[in-house]
Design goal:
The complex is a heterodimer. By secondary structure, chain A is an all-alpha fold. Chain A is built from 14 helices and 2 strands, in the order ααααααααββαααααα. Helices cover about 75% and strands about 5% of the residues of chain A. By secondary structure, chain B is mainly α. The chains are: A mainly alpha, B mainly alpha.
C-alpha cells in the first residue's frame, strides 16, 4: 500500500550536470511502467467503456453481484475494525511492555505478509473446520439470541465467519505496523505532565494518547480494509463459495471468467478498480493528515 | 524501554493482562495456523510426506515457481534501480505522479491483476488473435504467469531502495565524478554498494510474493496439471482432490519460504537498524 516517500533533502540543479543517466533511467522507468501497468490497466477501462450501459447495469444490479459486494465490503470492514482494536493492543504491548521473546513475537507479526495466501487459507480452514483444533472446540456450541450456549453446529469454516477470520489474519500487520512507529515516537513527557497534573491513567489514555494515535489507527484500518477487499487466496479455502451466501467479489470475477463471461468480469473488475483507487487516495490523504498531526516525517 | 518513567506506565497487573492478551491472540491467529501446516504435512508420516513432494505434478510446480521468480524478480530489480535512480538523483515535473503510479499494483486485487492481462492478451482480443495466429501462447501458458507475477511484485524493489538512495544523498557520487570516474564506474563502485541492504531487502520481499502469488496467477494459468500449475496452485489442486497430505506437503514448502523470508528480513533490519 502507499507510503509517501520523503523528498530528497538537497536541490539538484548542479547534480543534474554532474550525474549522468537521467534520460536513460527515467526513459526506461516510464517505458516499463507503461508496458506492464498502464496499458493493461487502461485497456480494462476502455473495454468497460465499450460495454453498453444496459449490459453494465445488468451485471452490477444482478442479485448475485449485489450479494457478493455486500459480503466483500461487510466482512472486510468488520475484519479491519477488529484489527484496529487487536492491532492497537499488539502494537501497544510490543512498544511499551518488555517481555522475554518480544523480538520474535514482533517478527511474527509480519507472518501474514510473508506467508503465501493459499497457505494461510488452507491452514485457517483446517484449524477452524469441525475437526480442527479450534473448530472442534466451537462445534458443540451455538449462538442463540445473542448468547453462546451449548448446542451443536457452530461452524466457522465454510461460513461468512470463516471469511472474517481469514481477513483478520491477512490485515493484522497493516494496523500494527502503522501504529507501532507512532507509539514509539510518542514522548513520555506529555504523559508525565498529564500525570503530575493529576490525570488518571485512563484519562491520559483516552484524552492524551488516543487522540494522537487515532490518525494512525484509522490509516491502518483503511489499509487493512483495502487489502481485505481484494483478497482471494486465503478466503476461497475457508469460504463455502456458494453464490449469494459465501461468494466474495474476486471469486465472482473468477466464476465469470470460468464461464467465458469476459464482459461481466470486466464490468465488476472496473468497479473494484475504482474502489481500490478511491481507497488509495483516502490512504494518501490520511497519511498526510497523520504526518501533519504529529509533525513528523511519516512512517 | 525499561527506563520508562513510573508515571508514564501502567501497574503490573494491567501490563501482564496486555502481554497475555497479545500472546494469546497472536498464538491463536498466527502461531496455530503456522503449526498446523507442518503438523498436517507430517501427519501421515515422513514417508508419505516425501512421496507427496516427489509427485511429478509437485515437482513440475516447484520448477515453474522457481522459473517465474527467476524471471520476474530480476526484471523488477532492473526497473527498481532505474526508477530509484531517476527519482532520487534528479528533479523533474510529475515526480509525485510517477510515485503514485508505481504504487498502483499494490492497490489492485490479485484477481483483477490477472484479469487485466486476460482482457489485453486473451484469444478473443485483437492482440490475442494476432498472437494466436503467430503461434505465441501467453495467456494460459508460462509467459502469462510470469507477466502477472511481475505485475503484482512491481513496486517491491523500488519501494525499498528509493528511501535508502534518498537518504544517501549525492555527495559521494559527485566526488567520484569530479575525480574523473565514468558514469558507470560511479554507479557500480559507489551507488550500488551504498544501497545493497535496501536492495537485498527488496529482493527478498519481491521473491516471497513472486513465489507465493495465488490470485493473479490463478486467473492467467489455466491450471493445467504438470504444465501451468505453480506451487500455490498445486496446493489448491491437491486440496480440491481431497489429497490433504499432498496439499499440506506443498504448503509446507511455501510456509518454509515464508519463515526464511521473515528471518532474513529481521536479520537485515537488525543489521541496518531500520526501525
Amino acid at each position: 500500500m502507499s507510503i509517501t516517500l520523503p523528498q530528497p533533502a538537497i536541490k539538484t540543479n548542479t547534480a543534474r550536470r554532474i550525474l549522468p543517466g537521467f534520460g536513460l533511467s527515467l526513459g526506461y522507468t516510464v517505458f516499463y511502467l507503461c508496458l506492464l501497468v498502464l496499458i493493461p490497466l487502461s485497456t480494462t477501462f476502455f473495454k468497460a467503456a465499450a460495454l453498453s450501459p444496459a449490459k453494465f447495469a445488468a451485471v452490477i444490479a444482478d442479485p448475485r453481484t449485489v450479494a457478493a459486494f455486500k459480503l466483500s465490503f461487510g466482512t472486510s470492514a468488520l475484519a479491519a475494525l477488529f484489527n484496529a482494536f487487536a492491532g492497537l493492543l499488539v502494537a501497544w504491548t510490543l512498544v511499551r511492555y518488555p517481555f522475554p521473546g518480544r523480538r520474535i513475537v514482533d517478527g511474527l507479526v509480519d507472518l501474514p505478509f510473508a506467508l503465501p495466501t493459499a497457505v494461510a487459507g488452507i491452514c485457517l480452514s483446517a484449524v477452524y473446520a469441525e475437526n480442527g483444533w479450534i473448530g472442534s472446540r466451537l462445534y458443540h456450541w451455538q449462538f442463540v439470541h445473542g448468547a453462546f450456549v451449548r448446542g451443536s453446529h457452530f461452524d466457522v469454516s465454510y461460513t461468512p465467519l470463516g471469511i472474517f477470520v481469514a481477513l483478520v489474519f491477512i490485515g493484522l500487520p497493516f494496523v500494527v505496523r502503522t501504529v507501532q512507529p507512532v507509539l514509539q515516537d510518542l514522548e513520555t513527557d506529555v504523559e508525565e505532565a498529564a500525570a503530575s497534573l493529576g490525570a488518571a491513567r485512563g484519562q491520559i489514555f483516552f484524552r492524551v494518547l488516543l487522540p494522537t494515535l487515532f490518525p494512525a489507527v484509522l490509516t491502518g484500518w483503511t489499509l487493512a480494509f483495502a487489502r481485505a477487499l481484494g483478497e482471494y487466496g486465503s478466503v476461497i479455502f475457508i469460504s463455502n463459495n456458494v453464490p449469494l451466501k459465501g461468494e466474495i467479489i474476486p471469486k465472482l470475477i473468477m466464476e465469470k471468467l470460468d464461464q467465458y463471461d469476459y464482459a461481466g468480469a470486466n464490468a465488476i473488475a472496473v468497479v473494484m478498480l475504482l474502489a481500490s483507487f478511491a481507497l488509495l487516495l483516502v490512504i494518501n490523504i490520511l497519511q498526510g493528515w497523520s504526518r501533519k498531526h504529529l509533525g513528523m516525517s511519516g512512517l | 524501554m525499561n527506563t520508562r518513567p513510573k508515571l508514564a506506565t501502567e501497574p503490573w497487573p494491567i501490563r501482564l493482562l496486555f502481554i497475555g492478551g497479545t500472546l494469546i491472540f497472536l498464538g491463536l491467529f498466527l502461531g496455530l495456523p503456522l503449526a498446523t501446516v507442518f503438523a498436517s504435512a507430517f501427519s501421515a508420516g515422513r514417508g508419505v510426506y516425501l512421496d507427496s513432494l516427489r509427485d511429478p505434478n509437485t515437482v513440475s510446480a516447484i520448477k515453474l515457481t522457481l522459473l517465474t521468480a527467476a524471471v520476474s524478480v530480476p526484471l523488477n530489480v532492473v526497473f527498481g534501480i532505474s526508477a530509484a535512480w531517476a527519482i532520487a538523483k534528479f528533479e523533474f515535473r510529475g515526480k509525485n505522479l510517477l510515485l503514485t503510479l508505481i504504487d498502483l499494483p499494490f492497490a489492485v486485487s490479485p484477481v483483477v491483476s490477472g484479469l487485466i492481462f486476460v482482457l489485453l492478451l486473451g484469444r478473443f482480443t485483437p492482440l490475442g488473435g494476432w498472437l494466436e495466429a503467430h503461434n505465441i501462447k501467453i495467456i494460459f501458458a508460462v509467459p502469462g504467469i510470469i507477466l502477472a507475477t511481475t505485475f503484482v511484485t512491481f513496486p517491491f524493489v523500488v519501494r525499498e531502495i528509493l528511501p535508502v538512495m534518498q537518504a544517501q544523498g549525492m555527495d559521494e557520487e559527485q566526488a567520484a565524478r569530479v575525480l574523473g570516474a565514468s558514469g558507470w564506474q560511479t554507479f557500480w563502485r559507489i551507488s550500488l554498494p551504498n544501497i545493497k541492504w535496501g536492495l537485498l531487502y527488496g529482493v527478498i520481499l519481491c521473491n516471497a510474493r513472486a513465489m507465493g502469488e495465488f490470485g493473479a496467477v490463478s486467473v492467467v494459468s489455466g491450471k493445467i496439471l504438470g504444465l501451468t500449475n505453480t506451487l500455490p496452485l498445486q496446493v489448491e489442486a491437491f486440496n480440491d482432490d481431497y489429497n490433504f497430505t499432498g496439499a499440506f506437503a506443498a504448503a509446507s514448502l511455501l510456509a518454509l519460504l515464508g519463515l526464511v523470508t521473515l528471518a532474513a528480513k529481521s536479520l537485515i533490519e537488525w543489521k541496518t537498524e531500520r526501525r
